[in-house]
């Protein structure tokens, strides 16, 4: 049997990329599979080539994760795109997205696009945010989809992976996708945009670039509320830098408890004030 990756999933269409043949086939799932599971973009499948166009899917490998939005399985990295300006940076939204995607089991990579627009002061401001997120434990890559600056660094970070985009409207997700893959997407090909005009498009396509790297054309959340996914008390587990501290109480919420080392770290400047305040805002604590 041969191994393939579902790279195209829309209505009855299943496009399977076979690693050995380096070729895309039309996947036909065996009846026993249809009963057992749905098939999503990002699914690794085993099966047999039937003719030059057709691949019979015999089994679907167990998924390491499944993102509801976009519907893609086995997502290694979520490229969360923001800009310092056009549109203005919203750190509360970024921190919500970081919490949610980490919760869903995909590694976030923070990308700041449109750095070609920044003057010296704004570059300093970008560096300040970069230090904050690197210290917190995230990858942070400044890029420009227009000049190409930083795109090779981003490629290195997502090499050999399945990645998808997330982030607010207008930050340049489609432009970065083009810069990565060389594919010029027609505006109407992007489902988020299509949805405004047409009925629901649930289709997702993964584009292959750099040998075996894949990136989804359907963006994930543009805005999100962490509390939609989890209880208040769970949020603290997805602020990476908090996990370095062992407070007096093991279930410390880092709000009012005595012996809270997280609060102390904020005072000492080890944890960023901005990140801590966004944490309080997410859990609805107004201090
Ligand atoms: N100056 C500059 N403009 C950019 C850059 N990347 C994208 N843009 C512009 O920003 C606008 C939005 O880009 P898109 O790629 O459509 O953004 P998007 O995130 O896909 O937007 P949605 O589809 O609404 O989610 C376009 O006018 C792009 O030309 C960049 O690196 N620098
Ligand atoms: Zn604490």
TrEMBL record:
Residues 64-224 form the CP-type G domain. PROSITE patterns: ENGC_GTPASE (PS50936), G_CP (PS51721). Its EC number is 3.6.1.-. Its main location: cytoplasm. Its cofactor is Zn(2+). Zn(2+) binds at residues 247, 252, 254, 260. The keyword Hydrolase applies. GTP binds at residues 113-116, 167-175. Pfam families: RsgA_GTPase (PF03193). Residues 73-222 form the EngC GTPase domain. Binds 1 zinc ion per subunit. SUPFAM superfamilies: P-loop containing nucleoside triphosphate hydrolases (SSF52540). One of its GO terms (molecular function) is metal ion binding. GO terms for biological process: ribosomal small subunit biogenesis. The keyword rRNA processing does not apply. InterPro entries: G_CP_dom, NA-bd_OB-fold, P-loop_NTPase, Ribosome_biogen_GTPase_RsgA, RsgA_GTPase_dom. GO terms for cellular component: cytoplasm. Keywords: Cytoplasm, GTP-binding, Hydrolase, Metal-binding, Nucleotide-binding, Ribosome biogenesis, RNA-binding, rRNA-binding, Zinc. It is found in: Cytoplasm. Gene3D superfamilies: Nucleic acid-binding proteins (2.40.50.140), P-loop containing nucleotide triphosphate hydrolases (3.40.50.300), Probable gtpase engc, domain 3 (1.10.40.50). One of several proteins that assist in the late maturation steps of the functional core of the 30S ribosomal subunit. Helps release RbfA from mature subunits. May play a role in the assembly of ribosomal proteins into the subunit. Circularly permuted GTPase that catalyzes slow GTP hydrolysis, GTPase activity is stimulated by the 30S ribosomal subunit. Monomer. Associates with 30S ribosomal subunit, binds 16S rRNA. Belongs to the TRAFAC class YlqF/YawG GTPase family. RsgA subfamily. This is Small ribosomal subunit biogenesis GTPase RsgA. It comes from Persephonella marina (strain DSM 14350 / EX-H1). The gene is rsgA.
């Amino acid at each position: 049997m041969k191994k393939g990756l579902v790279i195209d999933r829309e209505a009855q269409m299943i496009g399977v990329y076979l690693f050995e043949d380096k070729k895309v086939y039309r996947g036909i799932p065996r009846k026993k599979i249809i009963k057992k599971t749905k098939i999503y973009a990002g699914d690794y499948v085993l099966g047999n080539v039937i003719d030059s166009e057709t691949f019979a899917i015999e089994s679907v490998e167990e998924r390491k994760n499944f993102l509801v939005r976009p519907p893609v399985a086995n997502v290694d990295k979520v490229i969360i795109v923001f800009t310092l300006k056009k549109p203005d940076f919203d750190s509360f939204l970024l921190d919500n997205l970081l919490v949610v995607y980490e919760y869903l089991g995909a590694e976030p990579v923070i990308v700041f696009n449109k750095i070609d627009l920044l003057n010296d002061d704004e570059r300093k401001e970008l560096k300040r945010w970069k230090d904050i997120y690197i210290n917190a434990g995230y990858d942070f890559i400044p890029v420009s989809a227009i000049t190409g600056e930083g795109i090779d660094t981003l490629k290195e970070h997502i090499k050999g992976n399945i990645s998808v985009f997330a982030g607010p409207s207008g930050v340049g997700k489609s432009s970065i996708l083009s810069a990565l893959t060389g594919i010029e997407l027609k505006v109407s090909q992007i489902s988020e945009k299509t949805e405004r005009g047409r009925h629901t498009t649930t289709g997702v396509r993964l584009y292959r670039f750099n040998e075996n790297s894949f990136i989804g054309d359907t963006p994930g959340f543009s805005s999100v509320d962490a509390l939609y996914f989890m209880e208040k008390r769970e949020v603290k587990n997805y602020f990476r830098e908090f996990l370095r501290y062992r407070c007096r109480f093991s279930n410390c919420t880092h709000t009012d408890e005595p012996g809270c080392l997280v609060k102390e770290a904020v005072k000492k400047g080890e944890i960023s004030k901005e990140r801590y305040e966004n944490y309080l805002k997410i859990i609805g604590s107004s201090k």
